[in-house]
Task: structure prediction
Amino acid sequence: MYAPKDSKKPIVPVRLDLDSTICFSCDKDLACFTKCCHNNSTFLTPYDIIRLKQRLQMASDEFLLTYTTPGKVEASDLPVPMIRLVEEKNNACPFLGEDGCSVYEDRPVSCRYYPIAAGLFHNFDISDNESFFALVKEGHCLGHGLGQEMTIAQWRENQGIPPYDEHNKGWVEIILRRKSLGPFVEIPEKTLQMFFMACYNLDAFKRFVLKSNFLKIYNISQERLEEIKTDDVALLQLGYDWLMTTLFGAGRLELIEQVVEAEQIEVD
Ligand code: SF4
Ligand code: SF4
Result:
C-alpha cells in the first residue's frame, strides 16, 4: 500500500518480509541530503493528515487546500491527497526546511518507510495483516550499505511506523473491499465524496456527524460521541465504521430502531 515515493524510479524486484534484513542509514552529511524530498510523489494516508494538521495547528480542510493536490489510489478510482510540491523551489516538498524535514516527528508514513516500499496482498482478507515489502534503490540515494543491518520489523519500530499502520488499517480495508468489486463497478460521485470526507477531511466529517441527521440514524453511545469531539483517531474510526456500513453493508454501526421501521434512511 505504501508505494515508493516516486513510482517511476526503480524498485529492486526482491520481495521482502518482516524478517528480511536491510543495511541503510540516512545522514545529514551525505551529499544526497534532502534529494529524496524533491520531485517525489508522496501520498498522504488518513493518519498522516491527522499528525500533520495537529502539528501545524490547522483544520483538515485548510491543510488539504494548502498542502495537497488530488490523486488516486493505485489501480482504483478512490481519491487520495498527494503532497503538492513547490515549483519555485525545484519541486521540493513544502515541508522541507534548510536543515531537512521541518515536520520530522510527524512525517508521513511513506517517508518513514523509505527506502522500503510496503504493501498488502491484494486479496481481500487482511485479517492476518500479511504484508510484503520491496527495497527501493534510487540512483541519487547514498544511504544503501551504510549503518547497521536490521530487519524490516526493526526498521518499522525504529521509524515509528506501527501507530500509522494501526490507524490506517480501516482505510486499507475499505480500499481492498473496493478493489475486490472490480474495475467495472462504477463508484458514484457522492460515495467518493463520503470516502474523502471521512478519511481525509476529518473536521468536515465531525461537523457532518454533529450537525446532520447522522445521530438520528445511527446509535452512537454518549461515551463514543464525547470521544469523537476531542479525539481525531476515534473520529477516524467512526468514519471507517460508517463507510464500511453504508458502502458495503458491513453493519459496523447500529441503526436506531425507529429509523429502521420507518425505512426512510437518508444521509444528508
Ligand atoms: S515530509 Fe519531510 S521527509 Fe517527507 S518528503 Fe517532505 S520534507 Fe522530506
Ligand atoms: S540517504 Fe537517501 S533517504 Fe537519506 S537523504 Fe540521502 S537520498 Fe534521502
